[in-house]
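Chain entry —
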Amino acid sequence: MLKMLVDHVTNTTDNGRKADFDLDILVTLVCEEQEYIMTVLSMMRGVAELSNIDRAALWHQSCASEDEIIRVREESKTEISNMARKIVCFYSIPSGTDLLGKKLSSDIYCNITTGSHSSKEELTVLAMVGERFGLQQFDSLPSGVSSPFRHALDKCRDSSPNNGLVAAYVLLGRQDLAMSTLTLTISSTISDAIGLEGAKLEDADSVDGSLLYGMENIFNSSTQLHYGHDLRIE
C-alpha cells in the first residue's frame, strides 16, 4: 500500500485531485508513523533516479532528432542549390554563353556530355544528359521554368544529332534511335544500355524493358522502327 501511494503521488499522468488526496494520506501516515520516513524517502529517491534516467534518454533522443533535422535541411539546401545551378546552365547555353572547359563563361560549373552538336539546343541536351536531368526533373519544375528546356528538346527531336548517345535519344523521346543504337541482345533493357553509356538518367526506370513488350521483332533485318517526323529521311 505504501508503494502504491508513492507511485500515485509521483505519477504525473494520474488525476490531479487523486494525487493530492494520496499525498495527504502519505503525509499523515509519515507524520503518525515516523518509522516509515526512511522507507518513503528511499522509494521517492528511486522514482527520482528513474525519472532522471528517462530524462537523459529523452534528451539524447531529442538531440539526435535535432541532428537529423539539421542533416535533412542541409541535404535539402544542397539539392536546391544544385537544381538552381542546373537551371541557370540550361538557360545560359541557348542564350549564347560560352563554354570554357567544365565551366560556362559566367563561372558556373556545368557537366556536358561529350557528343556532336550543331546548335545551342543540341548542346543544351548534352548538358541535360551530363547533369542527369531527366523527365522526372522536368515534371518537378513549374511549367514556366521548364518551357524553354522543352522547347530545346522539341527542336532537337525531329532532327536528332547522330552522336549515338542512347541517354540523349531517350530524353528526346526518340526510343527508335535509342533501340537502333543498342548492340545488346533483345533481352537487355534500355536502362542497362544507358548505364553502359555512362550517362544514366535518374528517371531511366520510365524506359525499362516494358518498351520491348510487343515489339520484339523490331530488331530483325526486315523490320525497323522509324520516327514519323524524322527530318533526316526527307
In short: The chain is about 60% helix and 0% strand. The two ends are 98 Å apart (CA to CA). Strands lie at 99-100, 103-104.
